[in-house]
């Protein structure tokens, strides 16, 4: 066992360096295909290492597909990187965490940390996506004023959205620019608005899409309608802020109760590995771990249901 640990450590370090050189820090590639930029047989200059790197990235992109690290998940989180790069970072993080746990307390902690890394990556994407959607909702009231200002100036809905995309803050500017670009390449405006509302999980923005649809069908003063919608959205925002402040204590208590068992377990693994080693050497210990995991899931869902208030 003492001989295997250094060999495994050197192998993981070499693999991490190789991944960093070939994938993370690889040269920038233009969005325009190489055959268009260099149409006279430039692929002949590619080395075998470049071909291996391209093949690996392509395989990882196909593997990720619609999984937890798909392109849509990364876009929701506001990350501008290919899914293959993010997957390589997760694998490298799991390998480093597993090696650290192996050196600190043995194989049990190594397995736990290696499994925690991909779960932490999923939690990170979820946190960033939720934060991005929250900012979008907070900015929506001001952005409606920008859109109505463009409509009153005589611009069309698309031109007003384009102007709002140039003046609004992220992530609203990114989403409005995406709507404008989709409509310019032939997509229907109503479908683009509905897709944005679904992607950002915003009922308020769905109202804007419905107002635009009704206006296109029956006519009327869209700016005045959006003013009323904006006023309603701002009132809902005030209520959301009050509810969030009142439920802050419950949400913090839920986070502490969920993190506390894992923190204590990791501390005991580092300080006294044999103390918790009994749980993995007897059948009763595995049963207790399974029951504890089920109770943790039930408790987390229960607490989430208590502190999550729908509008």
What are the key terms here?
single chain; 311 residues; mainly alpha; Receptor-associated Protein; elongated
Q: N- to C-terminal separation?
A: 57 Å
CATH topology of the domain at 131-246: Receptor-associated Protein
Unreliable spans are none
Counting DSSP H or I runs of 4 or more residues, the number of helices is 14
In percent, how much strand structure appears in the residues? under 5%
Number of strands: 0
- Helix-strand category: mainly alpha
Shape summary: elongated
Please identify the top-level CATH class of the domain at 131-246: Mainly Alpha
Radius of gyration: 26 Å
Provide the residue-averaged pLDDT: 79
* H and E order: HHHHHHHHHHHHHH
Largest sheet: none
How is the topology of this model organized?
Layout lengths: L3 H21 L9 H4 L10 H17 L6 H6 L6 H22 L2 H46 L4 H11 L4 H13 L4 H12 L2 H16 L3 H25 L1 H24 L1 H5 L5 H25 L4
Helix pairs in contact: 1-5, 3-5, 5-6, 6-7, 6-11, 7-8, 8-9, 9-10, 10-11, 12-14
Question: If you had to describe this structure to a student in words, what would you say it looks like?
Answer:
There is one protein chain. The protein has 311 residues and is mostly helical. Among the domains are: 116 residues, Receptor-associated Protein (Up-down Bundle), CATH 1.20.81.30; 65 residues. The chain is built from 14 helices and no strands. Helix 1 packs antiparallel against helix 5, helix 6 packs antiparallel against helix 11 and helix 9 runs antiparallel to helix 10. The longest helix has 46 residues. The chain is elongated.
């Amino acid at each position: 066992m003492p001989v295997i640990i250094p060999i495994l450590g050197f192998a993981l370090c070499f693999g991490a360096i190789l991944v960093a050189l070939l994938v993370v820090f690889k040269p920038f590639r233009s969005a325009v295909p190489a055959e268009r930029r260099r149409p006279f047989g430039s692929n002949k200059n590619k080395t075998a290492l470049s071909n291996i790197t391209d093949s690996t990235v392509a395989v990882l992109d196909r593997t990720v597909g619609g999984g937890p690290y798909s392109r849509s998940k990364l876009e929701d989180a506001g990350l501008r990187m290919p899914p293959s790069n993010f997957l390589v970072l997760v694998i490298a993080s799991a390998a480093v965490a597993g090696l650290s746990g192996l050196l600190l307390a043995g194989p049990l902690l190594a397995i736990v940390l290696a499994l925690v890394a991909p779960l932490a990556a999923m939690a990170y994407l979820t946190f960033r996506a939720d934060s991005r959607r929250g900012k979008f909702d907070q900015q929506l009231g001001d952005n409606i004023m920008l859109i109505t200002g463009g409509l009153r100036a005589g611009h069309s809905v698309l031109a007003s959205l384009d102007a709002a995309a140039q003046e609004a803050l992220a992530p609203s500017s990114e989403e409005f620019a995406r709507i404008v670009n989709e409509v310019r390449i032939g997509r229907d405006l109503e479908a683009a608005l509905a897709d944005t509302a679904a992607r950002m999980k915003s009922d308020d923005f769905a109202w804007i899409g419905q107002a635009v649809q009704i206006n296109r069908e029956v006519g009327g003063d869209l700016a005045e309608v959006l003013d009323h919608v904006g006023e309603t959205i701002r009132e809902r925002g005030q209520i959301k802020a009050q509810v969030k402040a009142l439920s802050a204590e419950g949400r913090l208590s839920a986070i502490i109760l969920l993190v506390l068992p894992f923190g204590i377990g990791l501390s005991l693994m580092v300080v006294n590995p044999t103390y918790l080693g009994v749980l993995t050497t007897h059948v009763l210990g595995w049963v207790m771990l399974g029951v504890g995991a089920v109770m943790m899931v039930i408790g987390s869902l229960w607490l989430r249901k208590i502190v999550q208030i729908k509008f």
